[in-house]
Design a protein that fits this description.
244 residues; alpha/beta; Rossmann fold; 7 strands; 17% strand; globular; disordered C terminus; binds guanosine-5'-triphosphate; binds magnesium ion
């Protein structure tokens, strides 16, 4: 008889929406290891989070960009946070509201001490844009590791998919990601199992903040803010393009 391996669905079981926050004072207090889903509006953050958790409607998904407007915390198996962020770069949203989202994304990234990694989503049809480079510069400034994930791979034929994935991997390789771009589809499920395993590794790895040798600088995460508020200057974005 074939029994399902516990490794097959590492996040199956209880996952609950806990709160939608727009400033650090309203984040939930439990210090669980955390991953956050970041990327342009409509790139597929909420859909991917649902798929990884094997839940159809936990996070709200919509064809209309600007669907997720708060920082949504999902508690997974009572030991981890999965955090769904508002998207950036949604032109239709009023400028003031868009600035508020950017501010709340920046405040989030500067304040989370148990954030193990950001999952940076990039639509494989569009590739990396200036806004993504700006985000990467912010992540570098805060010393937050990021794992790049290409979304909606089901929308491309094999040839375009391979070409775009190759280009994206080249574009990102100099920007110190946690690994090569992982292809994914929340629709077909492609790439989901390896991504679940990778997230599990990141969430269960020893906490870098507590395993740093005493002589090294404390990680910027949780320490004093070192970056200008998000959005950061075009200079920083350009610097991100030149990072090793
Ligand atoms: N074909 C396909 N469509 C997808 C995939 N992932 C997401 N979508 C669709 O893309 C649209 C946006 O998905 P969301 O998950 O809401 O995107 P988001 O990044 O959370 O967007 P915001 O909350 O606005 O920042 C929805 O219509 C989804 O059904 C995918 O892998 N394949
Ligand atoms: Mg969303």
């Amino acid at each position: 008889m074939h029994l399902p391996s516990p490794r097959a669905e590492p996040f199956a079981g209880e996952a609950t929406f806990v709160t939608g926050a727009d400033h650090p004072g309203s984040y939930p207090p439990e210090p669980f290891p955390e991953v956050a889903f970041v990327g342009r509006s409509n790139v597929g953050k909420s859909a991917l989070l649902n798929r990884l958790l094997n839940r159809r409607k936990l996070a709200r998904v919509s064809r209309t960009p600007g669907c997720t407007r708060r920082i949504n915390f999902f508690r997974v198996k009572d030991r981890w946070w999965f955090v769904d962020l508002p998207g950036y770069g949604f032109a239709q949203v009023a400028a003031a509201e868009s600035r508020q989202w950017d501010k709340s994304i920046g405040a989030y990234l500067r304040s989370r001490t148990d954030l193990r990694a950001v999952i940076l989503l990039i639509d494989l049809r569009r590739g990396i844009l200036d806004m993504d480079r700006t985000m990467i510069a912010l992540l570098h400034a805060q010393a937050i590791p990021f794992l790049p994930v290409a979304t909606k791979v089901d929308k491309l034929n094999r040839r375009d998919r391979d070409r775009n994935l190759g280009q994206l991997r080249r574009d990102l390789s100099r920007l110190s990601p946690l690994g090569p771009v992982a292809p994914s589809s929340a629709l077909s499920g492609e790439g989901i199992a390896p991504l679940q395993q990778r997230l599990l590794e990141l969430l269960t790895a020893a906490d870098p903040a507590t395993t740093e040798p005493a002589t090294t600088e404390p990680a910027a995460l949780g320490g004093p803010a070192t970056a200008s508020p998000f959005p950061i200057s075009p200079d920083a974005a350009a610097a991100a393009g030149k990072a090793p």
